[in-house]
Design brief:
Largest sheet: 6 strands, mixed
Number of helices: 9
Distance between the termini: 49 Å
Strand content: 15-25%
Oligomer: single chain
């Protein structure tokens, strides 16, 4: 497919969809098509912090970069608690980071990318500032479904890759999270997700799937007690349980939750039989609203 967008935004590159692509390189080539056929005058927006985006570039002189970690000559970045845009080294303060309603560091990066795209399209700074303050996010992406009994219910059903679920976990206080996950791998490594779960989740509830054994093995590498070598090891710091379906998972999560906890539906995996993640998100919201009156 040949596309020629006037503005092309490539936010990041992670191993994903490896159940559909022969190699990671094939997947990357497909992602790169977003700017492959751009013409003179078109604008490319790339993530300076992402090693693949940074090393690949676009070959387009009209490239805007965005970064969470350092200033860029042309593009957007964070500085002293503000979203800042620079054009040939001339800085413009856009808005304080606290102005956005979006959760998570990854959404700060998304905001920076949006600033670049909007500016490239000719949107004026007052309108961009207003949008940053007003935008509440979209359904199914760190969507706060309900707050009740001191518990926050969050629908992040579109997080069907380990990297997306990892970003979601980092958006909330450590050890206040009851994570609903489980499902099937798309071929990506689960180690980083498992490490993040072990560090940040208090409870992990797994729905059926062929990746659950691998994920739980990484979260809790060994059983608590005496190993075969006779060495005592401490018990795991994550409570692990299984659920036959989403309704059962939500009921378990509510039973285990305490005031201040976040029940986070962010699977990091897909399901078999295949179910559209948006439908699963709607199911989660319906279950929460019916269970918690």
């Amino acid at each position: 497919i040949k596309i020629d967008p006037h503005i092309a935004v490539w936010t990041n590159f992670y191993p994903d969809h490896l159940n559909k692509y022969p190699t990671l390189e094939d997947y990357k080539k497909d992602k790169e098509k977003i700017f492959k056929y751009q013409k003179k005058g078109d604008v490319t927006v790339l993530n300076w912090d992402d090693s693949v985006c940074h090393s690949r570039g676009s070959g387009n002189p009209d490239t805007l970069w965005f970064s969470l970690h350092q200033p860029v000559k042309n593009g957007a970045y964070l500085k002293n608690g503000y979203f800042v845009f620079s054009e040939n080294g001339q800085e413009t303060k856009i808005a304080p980071v606290s102005a956005t309603k979006l959760l998570g560091e990854h959404n700060q990066a998304n905001t920076l990318a949006a600033i670049c795209a909007a500016h490239a399209y000719g949107i004026k700074w007052p309108a961009i500032r207003s949008a940053i303050r007003a935008f509440k996010g979209v359904p199914n992406r760190l969507e706060i479904v309900k707050k009740a009994r001191g518990i926050t219910f969050v629908n992040d059903c579109t997080a069907t890759s380990p990297e997306a679920a990892t970003a979601a976990l980092k958006s909330f206080p450590a050890k206040k999270i009851i994570l609903i996950s489980g499902g099937n791998s798309k071929g990506s490594s689960l180690k980083e997700l498992a490490q993040t779960i072990a560090a940040r989740a208090r409870v992990l509830i797994l729905m059926p799937g062929n990746a659950n054994e691998e994920l739980s093995r990484h979260v809790i590498p060994t059983k608590a007690g005496i190993q075969s070598s006779g060495i005592m090891i401490p018990p795991p710091n994550v409570i692990l349980s299984e659920a036959k379906d989403l309704r059962s998972a939500v009921k378990q999560a509510v039973a285990k939750a305490a005031p201040g906890d976040i029940i986070l539906f962010s699977p990091g995996l897909t399901w078999l039989p295949r179910q559209n993640e948006f439908a699963r998100g709607e199911e989660f919201k319906k279950i929460v609203k019916n269970l918690i009156k």
